[in-house]
Design brief:
The protein has one domain: Glutaredoxin (3-Layer(aba) Sandwich). It has 6 helices and 5 strands. Strands 1-3-2-4-5 form a 5-stranded mixed β-sheet, sandwiched between helices. Strand 4 and strand 5 form a beta hairpin. Pfam families: BrxC.
Length: 135
């Protein structure tokens, strides 16, 4: 029962924040007007957006697997986390701004103000981010 409880737990923000303190530093996306800043940052380093539904067991599993293997140089990658349930309007703004269909979980990589990669579910990998470093 413990395995299923962990995989399909509906505890939201408290557990999500504790997961975010792993080896990487995540910035929360909470407002659509943050997108212009993300575009500017993407001119200097990769911007990674992870969109996550905190009530979805599959999304939680992908998030945990991603977190466990994330190891990016801070000076080359900026990480942003979006809680879809709390900030759906931000997800809608991302879809409109970057012309990427909304999915969950979803990973979006920006470089020079453009989407260079996006993936969802099991296609979300740390290696996809590494492939865009130093290019």
């Amino acid at each position: 029962m413990g395995l299923f409880k962990n995989l399909f737990s509906t505890k939201s923000e408290t557990n999500e924040n504790s997961n975010q303190s792993n080896a990487t530093n995540w910035f929360k996306l909470t407002k659509a007007d943050q997108l212009s800043s993300l575009k500017q940052i993407s001119n200097k380093k990769l911007v990674v957006i992870f969109k996550h539904s905190t009530r979805c067991g599959i999304s939680r599993m992908v998030w945990n697997q991603f977190q466990a293997s994330a190891d990016f140089p801070k000076d080359e990658v900026e990480l942003f986390y979006l809680d879809l349930l709390s900030y759906r309007e931000v997800s809608d703004a991302i879809a409109q701004e970057f012309q990427v269909l909304h999915q969950s979980p979803q990973l979006i990589i920006l470089k020079h103000e453009e989407v260079v990669h996006h993936a969802s579910h099991s296609a979300i990998t740390v290696s996809s981010i590494h492939s865009f470093l130093n290019n």
